[in-house]
Write a structure and sequence with these properties.
Blueprint (H helix, E strand, L loop, with lengths): L3 E4 L8 E5 L13 H4 L4 E5 L21 H14 L5 E6 L1 H12 L4 E7 L7 H13 L5 H12 L6 H11 L4 H9 L1 H13 L6 E6 L6 H7 L6 E6 L6 H4 L1 H16 L8 E4 L3
Parallel strand pairs: 2-3, 2-4, 4-5, 5-6, 6-7, 7-8
Antiparallel strand pairs: 1-3
Helix pairs in contact: 2-3, 5-6
Protein name: Alpha/beta hydrolase fold
InterPro entries: AB_hydrolase_1, AB_hydrolase_fold, AB_hydrolase_sf, Epox_hydrolase-like
GO molecular function, one term: hydrolase activity
Length: 276
């Protein structure tokens, strides 16, 4: 089973919030969120297979090619072990795809979703990056690829902290594991197309940096097609908005979860969050 960590309030009615990191990261990328969220919610942090402290924790029969469903069911297994029947889910980058997939596999487990740096569609630049990665992944050191991708996705000097955080976390992922995760790129396009066509109706807040030029346009489009979906754009922030502007990310996400827990749906709007 995956490595996980929990923080529980002394309140039997407290809701659970499950944090899901992206590829190459670990649960440590949420260090700027934990202090604020544990004031109001029970919190579950997971390290996805091959990442963080989940390296080497799966049986040998699982040491093979796997898909998004396998990785998603890893998370459900942790929920079952803790008897968490339903929770709010917060994800960043590729973690948003896993949460969205979980909402298809087990919608009854998802109260709401907060999707930061959400990946809803691969634009031409993203598809070219994936194609180049597949072309050179066996001849170029994987960390070169990861640094290159990080720079393309987070190019601004103000994104440096996010780039360094993810690159340093990626160094902890074995090359064989990186290759397994990279194979998942072959499944992304049809999966995202299905997600675009299927509206779950589950309350979903998209938190996107205003400088996340690769993925923000698709989110602006999707909220016009899906019910119970809201977008808040965080100023002076890139793809990893929970690191670039943690105070904005935390306040917006917590307010949303509180409203959902109280049975209040936010007013439909696209909000621009100013940040200094």
């Amino acid at each position: 089973m995956l490595h996980y960590k929990t923080y529980e309030l002394d309140d039997p009615d407290a809701s659970w919030v499950v944090f899901v990191h992206g590829a190459g990261g670990s649960s440590s990328i949420w260090f700027l969120q934990i202090k604020e969220f544990i004031r109001y919610f029970n919190v579950l942090l997971v390290d996805l297979r091959g990442h963080g402290r989940s390296k080497g924790m799966l049986p040998h029969k699982e040491e093979r090619h796997y898909d998004f469903e396998d990785i998603t069911r890893d998370i459900i297994e942790v929920l079952d072990s803790l008897n968490i029947r339903k929770a709010h889910f917060i994800g960043i980058s590729l973690g948003t795809i896993l949460i969205r997939n979980l909402s298809e596999i087990a919608p009854e487990r998802v109260t709401s979703m907060v999707l930061g740096g959400a990946i809803l569609r691969l634009n031409i630049r993203a598809r070219v990056l994936v194609a180049l990665g597949n072309m050179f992944k066996r001849v170029v050191p994987y960390m070169w690829l990861y640094r290159f991708f990080a720079w393309i996705i987070m190019p601004s000097p103000r994104h440096k902290k996010s780039r360094l955080l993810f690159v340093n976390e990626a160094k902890k992922v074995a090359q064989k594991e990186f290759m397994r995760w990279f194979r998942l790129t072959n499944e992304i396009t049809p999966l995202l197309k299905y997600f675009e066509e299927k509206d779950t109706g589950i309350p979903t807040l998209y938190l996107m940096g205003d400088e996340d030029h690769m993925f923000l346009p698709a989110v602006r489009y999707i909220i016009t097609r899906h019910t119970n979906s809201w977008l808040e754009v965080i100023g002076n922030s890139g793809h990893v908005c929970n690191v670039d502007q943690p105070a904005e990310f935390n306040s917006r996400a917590i307010l949303f979860l509180k409203k959902i827990s109280s049975g209040i749906l936010p007013q439909p709007a696209v909000l621009q969050c100013a940040s200094s």
